[in-house]
Amino acid sequence: MTSTVTVPRTPSGWARLDRRLLWLAAVMLLCLALSPLEAQQARRAFRVGVLNAAWAASHPTVEGLKAGLKELGFEDGRDVTFDIRFTEGKLDTMPAAAEALVKAGVDLIFTSQEAATHAAKAATETVPIVFTLVGDPVGADIVGKLVQPGGNVTGVSSLQTELAAKRLEVLKTLTPAVRRVWVIYYKVDMGTTPMITKALEAAQRMKLELSPKGVQDADDLKRVLREVRRDDAVLAPEGSNPDLTIAIIERSLALRIPTVFGTALWIGYGGLISYGPDYYAQGVQASALVAKILRGARPQDLSVEGAEKIDLAVNLKTAELLGLTVPRKILLRADAFRR
Asked: Phi-psi region for residue 89, left (φ > 0), alpha (ψ -120 to 50) or beta?
């Protein structure tokens, strides 16, 4: 006797379940294929807060940060967005701007200059902070040490203390008749103290008289410059108050005072000569630290870096105005010229 077994057709409900299982499996495979960064991006873009005293959102360090992040795979608008707070030289508004970024829920705060970094540090102990344009991070009490700094802050030092002697050397080479150098700095910045110590040591070796003067604003600057005499010169280190640097440029040109600055940016505004880190390059360099933190690294484990790109720049037009002949030694070594 032969038995016949009839195989029933698959119900439509089972077909729908099979399709759902296939769809779920595909989604799980896609999630497994995503890196942690891509998984984060699938949810939302990272939000980077920016805090500085610039007059526009397109500060060179910010442009460098964006370019560096793009090279590292963070596309602006897709993977990362920027909440930029620039205070147009108004340092008293820094704390409120920093607090606003924290309340906005940014994933990281990117700062430029000492005042902005202090404001961000006071506003949060948990949101990671990456700084640029800080002359001496330890001297400024921003970090306790450079290697594995601890806390929520790391960044790129502009090496103000380390470059003090070289700036005096450049100034002396350009103006060999100089006998006294006035170091005019923004007196609120704590990081200038170790820089002045180094400058005093270097000046003694070069047989220069060094007169450090801390100033608060343009009125203070005018009072100090009344004491400047023939064969004097000025060293204007980087500081948190950009308005003060502009005032130094304007007064030094009006009074025909040779002045050395901390970065080539000021040569474009009429400054005579500069030796120091490039703003844009510091932003690019800092972008690597930002990327590491966005990918899960802790700022306390990332050592503070020294600025890698140091430029010598000279304004030939200003040199002519001051009656100076730029030595061949400087012309051969200069990275940038302004004619």
From this structure: left
